[in-house]
Amino acid sequence: MGGPKWTVRLGRQDATSARQSGANGNVPSPFSGLSDLISSFAAKGLSARDVTALSGVHTIGQAQCGTFRSHIYDDAKVNSTFAALRKRNCLPKGCDSNLAQFDLETPNVFDDGCYRDLEAKKGLPYSDQELFNGGSQDLLVRRYSVNSAALARDFATKIF
Fold first, then answer.
1. Domain ranges of the chain
2. How many CB atoms neighbour CB 61 within 10 A?
3. Nearest 5°: phi and psi at 116?
């Protein structure tokens, strides 16, 4: 998959037990706007820059239809070709668990593809696209879209 490497310490550092509700309560919603994303990360001691760097996790992986349906059907700012492609597998109703790759070009490689997608208005989900939507993180998204070394460094610095 490529991408940055870092040492992972053994043992839990964040909790003495694991619960799905606890985990879900600590992850921003895929429907969050930029200010909510920044606030959510700030509550954990992370900066707006960290939000953008750590969103690089979406260069690999998939999202369920239910987490991006409203974005591809109701958001006039989304790339129309991208939305049409995503609608093939995510119907207006049902299919909530159908999966879609975050990054269509290189879905199994840690790279800067998801940031190029944001510049092209092809962010999945809505919360990702908020990183490049005329706001404070646009310049950093542009930087990461052309400088995978900077992305890898910033991501690895903050992931742990």
1. 30-159
2. 13
3. -65, -40
Can you say which residues are annotated as belonging to the binding site? Answer: 28, 58-59, 103, 106, 111
- Show binding-site residues for heme b: 58
Max CA distance (Å), the chain: 46
Compute the distance between CA of residue 56 and CA of residue 32 in angstroms, rounded to an integer.
17
Who contacts 147 (Cβ-Cβ below 8 Å, separation ≥6)? Answer: 112
Q: Per residue in 86-103, pLDDT tens?
A: 999 999 999 999 999 999
Express each pLDDT in 30-82 by its tens digit. Answer: 999 999 999 999 999 999 999 999 999 999 999 999 999 999 999 999 999 99
Q: Which residues are annotated as a binding site for substrate?
A: 28
pLDDT score of 24? 62
The highest-level CATH class for domain 30-159 is mainly alpha
* DSSP SS3 for 62: strand
